[in-house]
Amino acid sequence: MFTVNPKLCQHFQIATLLYIFNERGEVLLLERAQAPNRGFWSPCGGKLKMDNGESPYACACREAQEETGLKISAADLHLAGLISEHGYQGQTHWLMFLFEVQVKLTRLPPVHAEGRFKFFPREQILAQKIPQTDREKIWPWFWQFRGGFFAAHCHCYADGRNEWTLEQACGAGLAARGKTVLPHAHRPEPRA
User: Does the residue 102 lie in any domain?
Assistant: First the structure.
């Protein structure tokens, strides 16, 4: 497997992921041509430009236009989730803002330097080559709390194991009533 390089793990990489749908309800995924996750299907998005103080919302709007040609504003975004990953692939820590884009795409974006796009129906996503963390929890929680919000932390171990903590969640129905769910079933088991 891999070992965590302490020098590379001193800071978080901050990124956005964009959950964009077409009019048929299929989600747009990018087969990544770049690291991280080269060769895997995942939502498009990218790193914040921290040198100029870019906000996660501004980053999401910029990435949507750069990668898909979709011009959106912060009002077109719903913050669906916040994921922190400790030691992802032994390289770095990630803080990811997951946005559902409210504007629907009417056509497939062209091939981009970041990779090629394809729409997938919900039931086909887990059958694709997707990152382990997406398969384990991110996609299931995205669907479970869609329309609401969830925050989670993943401790990625060198042996390939991931330990997840669902830190906060509210589903669309609960969000409308102002209720938050903190499910104990998703808290990590004590280590022996």
Answer: yes
Q: What domain range is 139 assigned to?
A: 12-186
CA neighbor of 48 nearest in space, from 9, 80, 15: 15
Q: DSSP labels for 144-159?
A: HTTTSEEEEEEEE-TT
Q: Which of 91, 79, 80 is nearest to 12 (CA)?
A: 91
Residue 152 CA to residue 162 CA, distance in Å, equals: 12
5: in domain: no
The count of domains in the chain is 1
30: CATH: 3.90.79.10
Task: Report yes or no on whether pTM surpasses 0.90.
Answer: no
> Cβ(63)–Cβ(54) under 8 Å?
no
Q: What percent of the chain has pLDDT over 70?
A: 82
**Edge-first strand listing for the sheet containing 12-19:** 44-47, 12-19, 92-101, 77-88, 149-156, 162-170
For the stretch 98-111, pLDDT in tens is 999 999 999 999 99
pLDDT tens-digit map of 13-41: 899 999 999 999 999 999 999 887 899 99
Give the containing element (helix H, strand E) for 65.
helix 56-68
